[in-house]
Amino acid sequence: MTFESYIQIRERSEQLCANLETEDFVIQAAEHVSPAKWHLAHTSWFFETFVLKPYLSDYQEFHPDFSFFFNSYYNAVGERTVRNHRGLMTRPTTEEVFDYRGYIDEQMKTVLENGLTEEVEATILLGLNHEQQHQELLLTDIKYNLWQNPLLPAVINIKEYLKQEEGGWIKMKSGIYEIGHEGEGFCYDNECSQHKVYLDDFEIGSQLVSNRMYLEFIKAGGYEKPDFWHSDGWTWVQQEAITGPLYWIKQGGDISCYTLDGKKELDLDAPLAHVSYYEAAAYAEWAGCRLPTEAEWEVANRKFSWGNRWEWTNSAYLPYPRYQKAPGAIGEYNGKFMINQMVLRGASVATSPGHSRSTYRNFFHPQYQWQFTGIRLCKK
Amino acid sequence: MTFESYIQIRERSEQLCANLETEDFVIQAAEHVSPAKWHLAHTSWFFETFVLKPYLSDYQEFHPDFSFFFNSYYNAVGERTVRNHRGLMTRPTTEEVFDYRGYIDEQMKTVLENGLTEEVEATILLGLNHEQQHQELLLTDIKYNLWQNPLLPAVINIKEYLKQEEGGWIKMKSGIYEIGHEGEGFCYDNECSQHKVYLDDFEIGSQLVSNRMYLEFIKAGGYEKPDFWHSDGWTWVQQEAITGPLYWIKQGGDISCYTLDGKKELDLDAPLAHVSYYEAAAYAEWAGCRLPTEAEWEVANRKFSWGNRWEWTNSAYLPYPRYQKAPGAIGEYNGKFMINQMVLRGASVATSPGHSRSTYRNFFHPQYQWQFTGIRLCKK
Amino acid sequence: MTFESYIQIRERSEQLCANLETEDFVIQAAEHVSPAKWHLAHTSWFFETFVLKPYLSDYQEFHPDFSFFFNSYYNAVGERTVRNHRGLMTRPTTEEVFDYRGYIDEQMKTVLENGLTEEVEATILLGLNHEQQHQELLLTDIKYNLWQNPLLPAVINIKEYLKQEEGGWIKMKSGIYEIGHEGEGFCYDNECSQHKVYLDDFEIGSQLVSNRMYLEFIKAGGYEKPDFWHSDGWTWVQQEAITGPLYWIKQGGDISCYTLDGKKELDLDAPLAHVSYYEAAAYAEWAGCRLPTEAEWEVANRKFSWGNRWEWTNSAYLPYPRYQKAPGAIGEYNGKFMINQMVLRGASVATSPGHSRSTYRNFFHPQYQWQFTGIRLCKK
Amino acid sequence: MTFESYIQIRERSEQLCANLETEDFVIQAAEHVSPAKWHLAHTSWFFETFVLKPYLSDYQEFHPDFSFFFNSYYNAVGERTVRNHRGLMTRPTTEEVFDYRGYIDEQMKTVLENGLTEEVEATILLGLNHEQQHQELLLTDIKYNLWQNPLLPAVINIKEYLKQEEGGWIKMKSGIYEIGHEGEGFCYDNECSQHKVYLDDFEIGSQLVSNRMYLEFIKAGGYEKPDFWHSDGWTWVQQEAITGPLYWIKQGGDISCYTLDGKKELDLDAPLAHVSYYEAAAYAEWAGCRLPTEAEWEVANRKFSWGNRWEWTNSAYLPYPRYQKAPGAIGEYNGKFMINQMVLRGASVATSPGHSRSTYRNFFHPQYQWQFTGIRLCKK
């Protein structure tokens, strides 16, 4: 791996924040989101902790307290800020965080130009994938944080809603398939090991559910009757007073939506975004269909186009057969989250270039709407 | 089906409550448990609602308000008491509830002796299985409710802890297996349809984890270090200040436990009970093993004895291929709970006779300890 | 003091519960109310703890655990049940509690017939006043507990709403007055010591605010606009979604209310009941008036009739000059509650005979509605 | 009033923030504190709303949304940001807020130089006192917000702890006194009207309780035993796990404290700061003394020096006789807070010059520690 390939990925994180005001870097509007400043620092902390400290001789850490500030959840690495206090840490300032990134990159340059053992290269590769993962969170968290503000500021020029044609159904035959990652190329431990699954015949949609289709569900009283919802889903709808996807703004008859590029009219022919698993499952039930399993999605994915929305599957996030988590702190990357979350497949408009593949297992708790999540159906 | 077979199952519910004081029937110590009185009435409400009202001509309902009081979660059947207010309903009294049961049984006698259509018989059969399911909840809820009381009263003579021998490992071969219910005999909709699964080679324990083995985990600091826990599990341990299985009483060096038959010394050679999924998974991790999937459990179950504890599996409660929920309110029985819960297999010392089978899918949220839950391991 | 005078007061507690079902004695619908069973036992515990144990030689306590169960808040007397768990204690049963009362009375008979030191007599007198205080709580808590039940049972034959005539204004002159208790006769420590206060001229209403008058306030949008409310009061109205006094039942145009004698039509000419201090103050503001201070109430009380409703004053519950709390556990009776509560003066339809006097200082937190609380106005 | 006198007070608000980083202006660490940015804007909004809009012909408001952002609690002025969301408003930026202040000052210059009606002058005077009140909150809120940060930054050069000598007791005679504001000079409506009170003889301390004295209370187990606490106070201590004044840092045997000027060693001879009313009352009880009433404080204040700490009194914040709140929105300034709060007298090291007087009534809820609050005792 070269420093150029490293720095190209790293720089994207900063480019995404180019239009933010200093104040925008600070806040955390909910426990499950983080401040932009935190993402920028945490991704650097990853390289400092797992590459520079162990492998760069007489490395001087940038600041003794940063490990406390910017460790996310790696218990093995010691104490850390309480998650919902990230938004109260005004120091280190945004400028200091950018200095921190610069310092880390400079040190990483040395490491990368000294030539790498396989072990170090693997860790750096993980760090870059980690950075890309946080680039998507950076976008979704900035969106969620600024959404709190009645001014609905436009901060990042991304087209979130891309038209798509009406789609049909793709027939798949029953039999034994292999899923999971195999061979060369990076993957997370949760994609391993490749293994056989038996699938029945199924039919999967070639297109995502559009805003127009979802609007039908709403008009049919989808959020007013428990009939189509999971029990936990209906409780969520009532307790949180949910009436539609996140970021929809209903004024009179019109529906607009908040995007990173500001308030926009809702494009009815574009794929739906920002629904929770509960909403995805309720919609599927109402439509007389079901959500695909992650295995069905993976074996069929070559037959449809994807990458616009993270697609909720009806598979819980659990280990594959013969799953082994990596030793040490790195092992906390995936395994410990394998409960209470549902798998999403594909990628989204916010996913970093080069960070998607057909075996990728994304996962979130079923109530979250703030990612660019959408719906693909299977016939019952 | 005869009235005798019907009444035999119904009477067991009342026998279980024989030693309760009137006061004991009233309380609800947590939202996820219900008062004994409520179980006795709700199981009768089931027959009134789904059998007597639709199928017995000019049936007179026992009391116009009981449907409101004793509907559990069937939205299609209309309004109901807020779940956590069940324990505040002092009227109808326990005596009235027993009268209600008598009235329902008398009316059911008429139905049963008039000869049954297949449809009615199926519904009654479901009602009896529903009653048996609530008989187990009756025991676990009574235990939880009376556990709040420092007097630790003995109310039901059940031997909760039965010795077992040390066990070994059972080897199973990879290949395609069929799981799920097939053919004659009752099953819930969630056991259907029978379908093929592909399994790799695996080894499963012939015995359950004992109190002695679990105590090792505790002594090794199992509840003090996050290392072995899921992230959500560790949060649970810390927020709820969990230090061991439910109902354990530590005094000095001794450990005793609360049982339905009062306070007992803990039998170290008996199978562990009252652990959450989080604890089961953490123990397995600490032991260098894993929990079985429900498919692994089902294909191997003939090779080991089970029925003493509900066994946490590492499978989320999700629909089988081609799962169809029953039409109408009955359809709310299972399908809508297929999220956020983990499957337990087997049966327990509290399960009613004749209510267990190898395809049975029990399910609870991962934090609950109040059922008779235990651990069976698989090799990694 | 004679045993007859003692037992006459004690028996009233039991008479009040004559129509309760066993189940009704158990529940606790909110943390600030207690189960009927608890009141019956706690008042007996008071005599056991402060009279029998210290003064009756070789007294055998009724049950070793009862002190734990039935201590209310006397920290000096040791551990006690968590307040909001009182409703989960099904044992001791109601019957055992009645046995407990019988045992205590029998022992007290011995004490009372042996002749008393002044100290013991004073403690018994306090115990009887304590019992009478709990008799009123018994009524208000039973009402609150059974109000949860859609059946709205009638359990105690008390006429809660008594008509009154329209009233006028009573003029009082400025000057130095003496308030607080002086001379013979029982009083609580919080009524001492008698002391001088300077009052300006004021005018106080001769009658209480009626349901009719309060209804005007509601119709004028009293609960929809913040204008008349304290800031904390308005927060309370919005968070608790308060739209009127407790126990009012609005159906179409009609207003009925729940009483201990069951559901009744609301008598518009009777004095308003079950309003919080926040509501009393907001009504007064809306009416262009104010609430009296406790000093104003006390100096004027001979000029109007009172005793139908506890009357919210605009005085905070604070110690009088030279206030001394009693030594030992008895000292916890009043002093430690002298913060965050407002003083109520007078008495109510639920107050026990012989338990009211013009210097009596009742006190509750400003949000509570469940006592028989009403409003008397002063001119601004 | 001249523009010079106006601008001199206004400028102090900005001087206090001179050393803050942009990020420091944004956060709100608890619902009861506000972001520095918000204070700077809100005090300007006050002049825009109550002076410029009503009195400056064709005044152009600075920004149509600012009224929504920076209205504090004036319901009569319309919608406003939910209080605990103030810390999520990254826009308007700090720079825009400073521009806003500049714009307001420029417009106020016109108003002030056009000559003022009495009514306008009174409103401006209120606005300046309002600004000074927020200058103290600015200091206490900045301190609370930055205290969350492990770096414990030093941001404002204020000496918080000033030595004082040991003091004695001042004897005051019983009789009628006059308290409350009278005559020329500004005061808030809550200081009116002046009125007679009758006081008994009392003795009040000439000095405040020192850190050394308070430390004795802690060493004596003050936070471990309920004996000295109000019931609500003890609940607060236990639920919030309070073990001492806010901002104390215990490391080994040493005690240091966080100040606006960074971490300092605790000066034992300086007056205690940052205790709640509950702590003040518990300390007084432990010391065999009591807190003064606000009337006692006011009549005795000429005989001792004050101004270093806000002194908790044992008086609830309630209206004086003949209290009239101002008409319109201004009337929301004080009256609606006259419940659930205790009066503090004096002033503190954080009080703006010229903003203190002997009739001043400050008030806070009894659990708050974040103001510069201290203790003065009276003999029982």
UniProtKB/TrEMBL annotation, chains A, B, C, D:
Gene3D superfamilies referenced in this protein's UniProt entry, alphabetically: paralog of FGE (formylglycine-generating enzyme)
Listed InterPro entries: CTDL_fold, EgtB, Sulfatase_Mod_Factor_Kinase, SUMF_dom, SUMF_sf
Pfam families according to UniProt: FGE-sulfatase (PF03781)
Domain annotation Sulfatase-modifying factor enzyme-like: ranges: 168-302
Transmembrane segments: none
Gene Ontology BP, a term: ergothioneine biosynthetic process
Domain of life: Bacteria
Matching SUPFAM superfamilies: C-type lectin-like (SSF56436)
Protein name, UniProt field: TIGR03440 family protein
Organism field: Echinicola vietnamensis (strain DSM 17526 / LMG 23754 / KMM 6221)
